[in-house]
Specification:
About 35% of the residues lie in helices and about 25% in strands. It is of the alpha/beta class and about 400 residues long. The chain binds zinc ion (ZN).
Length: about 400
């Protein structure tokens, strides 16, 4: 059995494989071929959606876990791991405000086994999985603690302060006639920092800040409201972002990013829409590939079926949506062009996974190049973030003025 295979299995899996595997495990440790591993880093990402704990090592972590009740807790055993100062710091990383974790206890359980006891605030649905080295990361063991009853974004939206659509007779026809919902998607988050500038600015932080400014503007409109795919520093897989937008029956989907390129002089804003029949340029194809790698870096449990994927196959026609996406893209690009040089004077197309809602016009805005030192500096500037948020907002408003939404009976 290969090292790789052993690494991907839980201890229970190894037991099922029988004596041969167990011998291998013992031999490995005893012979010191690999030696005891030491966890290099621990990270905790608490969020309303789920709390994630990541352990990072230079070699694959072998683990088993078990959920117990009364009191609710999760036991995670790490095989052949040294209890070191990094693991000792894990309990201190849990904030009292964590939605799912009460506390963590960590220590040597028996020779060669470190046990983490995660005391829970209630029942959770855990997803525990490993990730191979990618980007800056070594081997990772990921513990995702999802609520036993998943949060429904539609319920969350309806429970928010109700906002009544204002419809007055004699309004000019450009005004929006019903409440529209705009899904704002700050790219990356949590384990996935996105692109990082020379001065250390992470894309995930600046795009969240810009998206929040955009939200403020949209929420001030009487007939517009927003939902965010994430509103904090945590990772949401790309498919789930699309799924959330569909669940709340969003009228538009706007993903906010910051571009990066090896050449530091690359600069300016761009807007992208989905193309499933080839990219509009080599650069667009390259960029879509980089943005789609978000799931690999951010970390997704591949064993868990993405409910979105199956459904998309049923939606055969996307033509109307892609026309609307292009119109929205042009309106937003036009406004960005008034405040910033454009990287490309036209809306570009490529196969971005996050733009794949078949029934929601969707765009991805690359605000600036974070890899360009001057643009990185501006991206950190509050006033400049407002300028970008204003431009996207005006683009969205222009789009609705020209393309008033059709009546929808499902949402107030
Ligand atoms: Zn990005």
């Amino acid at each position: 059995m290969s090292e790789k295979l052993a690494s991907g299995l839980s201890r229970r899996g190894l037991l099922k494989l029988g004596a041969a595997s167990l011998t291998l495990l013992v031999t490995r440790t005893a012979a010191g071929a690999i030696g005891r591993s030491s966890v290099m880093a621990v990270r905790v990402w608490p969020a309303p959606d789920y709390t994630r704990i990541t352990l990072e090592d230079s070699q694959p972590l072998i683990f088993s876990y078990q959920q117990l009740s009364n009191p609710a807790r999760l036991l995670v055993d790490l095989e052949g791991v040294e209890f070191n100062s990094v693991l000792a710091k894990l309990p201190g990383r849990i904030s009292a405000a964590d939605p799912y974790i009460k506390q963590i206890r960590a220590g040597r359980n028996r020779p060669g086994v470190v046990r983490l006891v995660v005391d829970l605030k209630g029942k959770v649905k855990p997803q525990v999985f490993t990730l191979k080295p990618v980007g800056e990361y070594g081997y990772r063991l990921v513990l995702d603690l999802y609520p036993a009853d998943p949060i429904d974004p539609l319920m969350a939206l309806l429970q928010k302060q109700p906002k009544l659509p204002q419809q007055q007779p004699g309004e000019n026809p450009g005004e929006i006639a019903r409440m529209v919902t705009i899904m704002l998607d700050p790219g990356h988050g949590g384990e996935d920092p996105g692109a990082t500038g020379q001065a250390g600015t992470h894309e995930k932080n600046v795009v969240l800040s810009i998206a929040r400014r955009l939200r403020k503007r949209i929420e001030a409109e009487p007939n517009m409201r927003t939902v965010m795919t994430r509103d904090g520093d945590y990772f949401i897989p790309l498919g789930q972002r699309v799924e959330k937008a569909r669940r709340v029956q969003a009228d538009l989907f706007v993903s906010v990013h910051a571009d990066a390129f090896t050449n530091r002089t690359a600069h300016g804003s761009s807007v992208f829409v989905l193309s499933e029949h080839g990219a509009s340029s080599a650069a667009a194809r390259w960029l879509a590939r980089r943005e789609n790698a978000s799931d690999l870096i951010g970390g997704v449990d591949l064993k868990v079926k993405d409910p979105y994927l199956a459904r998309t196959l049923l939606d055969l026609s996307q033509t109307a949506t892609s026309n609307d996406s292009m119109k929205l893209g042009r309106d937003v690009l036009g406004q960005l062009g008034d405040v910033n040089p454009l990287h490309q004077g036209r809306v570009e197309e490529a196969a971005f996974a996050v733009l794949k809602a078949p029934d929601i016009p969707s765009i991805l805005v690359e605000t600036d190049f974070i890899s360009n030192p001057e643009e990185e500096r501006r991206l950190n500037d509050d006033a400049y973030q407002d300028v970008i948020a204003d431009a996207i907002f005006k683009g969205v408003k222009n789009y609705f003025a020209k393309n008033p939404p059709l009546a929808k009976s499902t949402l107030s």
